[in-house]
Amino acid sequence: DADVTQTPRNRITKTGKRIMLECSQTKGHDRMYWYRQDPGLGLRLIYYSFDVKDINKGEISDGYSVSRQAQAKFSLSLESAIPNQTALYFCATSDPGYNTGELFFGEGSRLTVL
Amino acid sequence: GEDVEQSLFLSVREGDSSVINCTYTDSSSTYLYWYKQEPGAGLQLLTYIFSNMDMKQDQRLTVLLNKKDKHLSLRIADTQTGDSAIYFCAELYNQGGKLIFGQGTELSVKP
Asked: Which of B42, B98, B102 sits opposite A42 (nearest CB)?
């Protein structure tokens, strides 16, 4: 089983719909992140959380919200999806005890907004 | 500001060396990374270099760091078709412990 699991893996939705992408991890890491990947733009940070009570905005948080339900769970919501939110979304975790700062990624959730 | 830049595409022949380049802006970065993304998969750490090093070698991979020019490169010796992937450069941005990624370089290896 994957250490970082994202659901759903693929989703097609319509403009204006509310969408939630979920991430769960079995690595026991405190830090969790949501990135989006767009061709030619690389990965951009949406939100990150260093523990259950800590939520921080990343570079492109507008139009998104998050919830850290537990150490192991971090959800990303699009309250009213729009077509330019069509992208591949990645959840990642890290452990501050790893002094290299390495991130561990899920396999991605491909979202298409029509 | 925080910015990491890479060229988008590189094509090489099997058996040749590949060199993927990256520039970054945060001079206080402690770690710089190369991640690999295979088709349909997430990113996996390929290698990293600590900022007080100039070079790191790991089998077919050589990482060179020029701190003065804020330039990082990844050399893959004897490139194989299995090396075809997108390679991301990233820096550990000290303010907040975040990783900032480049745009990714798509490496295509032709037989």
From this structure: B102
Query: Is the CB of A4 less than 8 angstroms away from the CB of B4?
Result: no
Average pLDDT over every residue of B74-93: 94
Which of B99, B100, B105, B106 is the mutation pick for testing A, counting most A CBs within 10 A? B99
Give me the half-sphere count of Cα atoms (radius 13 Å) on the Cβ side of residue A49. 24
- Calculate mean pLDDT across residues A86-111: 89
Note whether A103 contacts B102, CB cutoff 8 Å: no
Distance from CA of A16 to the nearest CA of B (A): 27
Residues of A in contact with B35 (CB under 8 A): 103
Joined together, the tokens standing for residue B17 give: 């060396």
Alpha-carbon gap, residue B97 to B80, rounded angstroms: 34
Q: What is the pLDDT of residue B89?
A: 95
Identify the band that residue B98 occupies on the pLDDT scale cut at 50, 70 and 90: confident
Mean pLDDT of A67-80: 96
Could you read off the pLDDT of A2-61 as tens digits, one per residue?
Answer: 799 999 999 999 999 999 999 999 999 999 999 999 988 889 999 999 999 999 999 899
What residues does B44 pair with on adjacent strands?
Answer: B36
Confidence (pLDDT) at A52: 93
> For residue B100, which residues of chain A lie inside 8 Å, CB to CB?
45
Give the strand pairing for B9-13 and B105-110. parallel
Query: Does residue B89 contact residue B34 with C-beta atoms inside 8 Å?
Result: yes
